[in-house]
Amino acid sequence: MTHLLNDDDDKPESEKDADAAKPSTPSIGANLFKSRTVLIFGEIKDKLAESVTAQLLALAFENDDPIKVIISSPGGHVESGDVIHDMIRFIKPEVKIIGTGWVASAASHIFLGAKRENRYCLPNTRFMMHQPWGGVGGKVSDIDIEAREIIKMRERINQEIADETGQPIEKVRKDTDRNFWLGPQEAKDYGFVTHIISSFDQVK
């Protein structure tokens, strides 16, 4: 029978015993899970949405204590952002979301998934909202269908921004017609952010 060697097979018994006695070092992932913290960094895609959804569901199954989500992202796929946005509202534990770096496009939609009182950002965070866009090709009838879908998506997102910030829908439509950037205080004045914080213990 073939025996597969592992690195420990060549070690003397004394070294094996010493290794066994060493305390195991928790992984970053284990520490994040223990602290009920989820990270959203980089482009919003299906794989990221799947990973974040799995973590949120696992933490919700663990207990009902609040979950902290830290986000820095340039945005990405609208539908992938929808998944995370809806999951934040779907689970029972409250989600406290903390923006850092930049929270743009689909990431800003995710940010609005948290209740208004649970929206935080760090002092150098930038927010950006704009209308959804995409390249459409194919038959004229298909182009027409996709164009109508983009318009419906734009109106849905604009209404969400209006509902969650308290801004009139007419203003939101105008603001999001082009890239609309907000610094922390501007985002707070707009109703996007509630708390600008500089330390972890300020998350209530």
Residue stretches low in confidence (pLDDT < 50, at least 5 long) are: 1-9
- Number of DSSP strand runs: 7
User: CATH homologous superfamily of the domain at 28-131 and 177-202 - what is it?
Assistant: 2-enoyl-CoA Hydratase, Chain A, domain 1
Gross morphology = globular
Query: What's the overall average pLDDT, rounded?
Result: 88
Structural class of the secondary elements? alpha/beta
Order of helices and strands: HHEHEHEHEEHHEHE
Tally of DSSP helical segments: 8
Beta-sheet strand percentage? 15-25%
Ends apart, CA distance between termini: 60 Å
Largest sheet: 7 strands, mixed
CATH architecture of the domain at 28-131 and 177-202: Alpha-Beta Complex
Global Rg: 22 Å
The CATH topology of the domain at 28-131 and 177-202 is given as 2-enoyl-CoA Hydratase, Chain A, domain 1
* CATH first level of the domain at 28-131 and 177-202: Alpha Beta
Percentage of residues assigned to helices: 40-55%
Question: What are the key terms here?
Answer:
2-enoyl-CoA Hydratase, Chain A, domain 1, alpha/beta, 204 residues, globular, 7 strands, 7-stranded mixed sheet, disordered N terminus
What does this structure look like?
The chain has 204 residues and is an alpha/beta fold. It has a domain at 28-131 and 177-202: 2-enoyl-CoA Hydratase, Chain A, domain 1 (Alpha-Beta Complex), CATH 3.90.226.10. It is 45% helix and 17% strand. The chain is built from 8 helices and 7 strands; from the N terminus they run ααβαβαβαββααβαβ. The chain has helices at 13-21, 28-34, 46-62, 78-90, 106-111, 140-165, 169-175, 184-190, and strands at 37-41, 67-73, 95-104, 119-121, 126-129, 180-182, 195-196. Strands 1, 2, 3, 4, 5, 6 and 7 form a 7-stranded mixed beta sheet that branches. Strand 1 (37-41), helix 3 and strand 2 (67-73) form a beta-alpha-beta unit. Helix 3 (46-62) runs parallel beside helix 4. It is globular.
